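Figure S7 source data.
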Amino acid sequence: MKKNLFGLMEEAIREEMAPFDIKPFRARQLVDWMYGKSAVSFDEMTNLGQDLRYKLAREFSIDRAKQVERWDSADGKTTKFLLGFPDEVAVESVLMRQPYGNSICISTQAGCAMGCAFCASTLKGLTRDLVAGEMLAQVFFINDYLNKAGEKVDTMVLMGSGEPLYNYANVLSFLRLIHESYCLNFGYRNVTLSTCGIVERIYDLAHEKLPVGLAISLHAPNDEIRRRIMPIARKYPIKDVVKAGEAYFNATGRRVTYEYILIDGVNDSRENARELGHLLAGQNASVNLIPINPVVERCLRRPSDDRVTAFANILHSMHITATVRKEMGTDINAACGQLRNRHLEGNA
Ligand code: SAH
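Tokens for the predicted S-adenosyl-L-homocysteine complex:
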């Protein structure tokens, strides 16, 4: 298989080309074409001689992602893509047109190994990690799509399928690459990484000192409930997760968001709200309450609106910033992993 250059940093491209006697300065031209001009073939690179273009095409490829399917929500605000890679693995990426700009949600792994009870991404386990170029390919695909309307991707969340901190090296390469001025020049502050709370890796990320936003999927106020719905909670006590979140804030100055899916009769009582309030008291953090998006394969239900409001009000009364997530795209099953599963089952 030819080496794919898409997703590599300029230095790495230089090293890849050296054995073929391609001059170092060519790497800059390549990144300008691939990332700056979104070129998808060496043929487009008109300031490279024909011999060189031929040589590059013989040794290397520029593999991105192809659209397998696309769904648009009725209100036109959410578009979901199933994007495929050369080995036929496909992942979901979502575009949400928010009042503050175009936000995208990308996947970091195909499938997921975490086994959370409420999540569709994990139903079929982990297929494989995505490399940096495959995360970048999702961004480029949606950017190209938006370009036609004179728009672009403004913010992104690493909140699609997969656990980004279990694919740490590839995710870090991706973050560094999008930040490069020759690539997307994307501000770290416009990226949020969501994790189910891999404690050591949160400290590692804090040490990188990239000011990316961090969202931690908490979903419970204590270990007992958390272990029931999130297998990873057996490994990391909830107090250690919150401590890591605090360290992240101290290292980066970025306030952590705790995500909390509200599930009827599981974690949505007044007592649960008070316990959550005590757990997060004094933290420089906010809570994002997410009434569960029911997944057909699981029998977990959404609480009534009144219960959701009551939960939020208890947190407010304890001086915890809490918002209820506005739903987008439920009519196209935009909930995590649901489209990919339908596709794998062949009835999309
Ligand atoms: N592994 C990472 C990122 C992927 S899941 C993590 O755990 O954070 C990220 C988010 O998907 C969850 O926090 C939650 O906000 C959302 N999610 C998953 N299943 C959901 C469901 N059934 N309904 C609503 N949100 C869900």
